[in-house]
């Protein structure tokens, strides 16, 4: 029971971080998810991580970004992959 409660609280803490740090504003980057209403899109941070950059290197190149911002990008991406179904839209 304690493990389950710990897992739930960790999930709540992660979501609070994402809600505070990842924003979607139609006036910034065409409504793409960004870090704290800046012009740093989440996908750019994920691309930097995928290219092999670590948190320190990203912070050196983008001094206004904090470790918690990068972590929030990872949590955000993780949550997006947990969808139940994906359906094709016919346009």
Spell out the key features of this protein.
Arc Repressor Mutant, subunit A; globular; 4 helices; two-stranded antiparallel ribbon; mainly alpha; 55% helix; 91 residues; 2 strands
Overview of this protein structure:
It is a single chain. The chain is mostly helical. The chain has a domain at 25-80: Winged helix-like DNA-binding domain superfamily/Winged helix DNA-binding domain (Arc Repressor Mutant, subunit A), CATH 1.10.10.10. The chain is 55% helix and 7% strand. The protein is built from four helices and two strands. It has a two-stranded antiparallel ribbon. α1 (2-21) crosses α4 and α2 packs across α4 (67-80). The termini are far apart.
Summed up:
The protein is mostly helical.
* Major beta sheet, strand line-up: 1-2
- Give the H and E element order: HEEHHH
Work out the strand percent. Answer: 5-15%
Architecture of the domain at 25-80, according to CATH? Orthogonal Bundle
Please give the count of helices: 4
CATH class of the domain at 25-80: Mainly Alpha
What integer value in Å does the Rg equal?
15 Å
Strand tally = 2
Helix content: 40-55%
For the residues shown, what is the average pLDDT?
84
Question: What structural class do you assign from the helix and strand content?
Answer: mainly alpha
Tertiary shape? globular
Summarize the biggest pleated sheet: 2 strands, antiparallel
What name does the CATH topology of the domain at 25-80 carry? Arc Repressor Mutant, subunit A
